[in-house]
Write a structure and sequence with these properties.
The chain is built from 14 helices and no strands. Helices cover 74% and strands 0% of the residues. Helix 1 packs antiparallel against helix 2 and helix 6 packs antiparallel against helix 8. The protein is globular, with a radius of gyration of 20 Å. With 264 residues, it is an all-alpha fold.
Length: 264
């Protein structure tokens, strides 16, 4: 057995590794990695510990432990660090749209290296939250700044969130909304970010169900469930199960031309 020691890798290296593993591979493994990093970070530069709690908060949120995610975001702020955009996403998902946008607006006013380097990510998350929350005018303001400097933010993840934002701005029933979500899923997949690709699959499934495309929805849900199990995301598994159970009850009474119930 190979024994790891603090001398082998720095806390910053473990921190980066945890973030990559969380995005692309297995969430419990990422959690183990960041838990190993935090004691090292406490002995390094002061900012790094706050960043460690931010990253661990994101991992907890993806797993589905929202209480622990909130505690870590709060700890990051207590250390003088910034927990965005994960903190804002969690606020929005738990019903606090105003708080989410206010948190991102505060972060966008920051002038540190962290804030300048992550400005595109902050802007696109703000745009997406505003659009999903029905604040189309506010979403358009964020998108305008992004569009003005689009060459700076060509990363697939940023482009995926832009597509999600524009999909949310589409009117109900607009087929362009589904096309944009399919583009977002493709971009997340090309970036190797399995969690967000699966998350968007569930959005697509929901949209397909509303349009009556049950078989298409089933394909997306099944793929999302497979990714959720691989990632170790209880959250995605529960969301997929809720979606599947909801339309399964409705479709059990639907009979095809041969007199057989549709198999879901």
């Amino acid at each position: 057995m190979v024994h790891r020691s603090f001398a082998q890798t720095s806390g910053a290296c473990d921190l980066h590794r945890a973030e990559v593993i969380a995005a692309q591979q297995v969430l419990p493994e990422a959690l183990t990695c960041i838990n190993e990093a935090l004691p090292k970070l406490s002995a390094e530069e002061s900012w790094s510990l706050g960043e460690g709690f931010r990253v661990r908060g994101d991992i907890f949120a993806m797993i589905g432990d929202l209480t622990s995610a909130r505690a870590d975001y709060d700890q990051a702020y207590a250390l003088g660090w910034d927990a965005e955009p994960g903190n804002a996403v969690l606020l929005f998902e738990t019903g606090d749209l105003d708080g989410a946008l206010a948190a991102l607006d505060r972060a966008l006013q920051g002038t540190s290296w962290f804030h300048r380097q992550r400005r595109g990510n902050l802007l696109v998350n703000a745009a997406c939250i505003a659009a999903r929350g029905g604040r189309s005018d506010q979403a358009s303001i964020y998108l305008k700044e992004i569009d003005a400097q689009l060459e700076r933010w060509r990363q697939p993840a940023t482009q995926a969130l832009i597509a999600e934002t524009k999909a949310a701005l589409c009117r109900p029933g607009d087929p362009n909304g589904n096309r944009l979500l399919l583009l977002a899923r493709q971009l997340w997949t090309s970036a190797g970010v399995d969690y967000h690709a699966a998350r968007v699959r569930l959005q697509i499934a929901s949209a397909l169900l509303r349009s009556g495309d049950v078989s298409g929805a089933k394909v997306e849900i099944t793929a999302a469930e497979r990714s959720a199990r691989h990632l170790g995301s209880r959250r995605l598994e529960e969301e997929a199960a809720t979606l599947r159970n909801g339309f399964s009850r409705e479709c059990q009474s639907i009979v095809d031309g041969s007199g057989q119930e549709l198999n879901l």
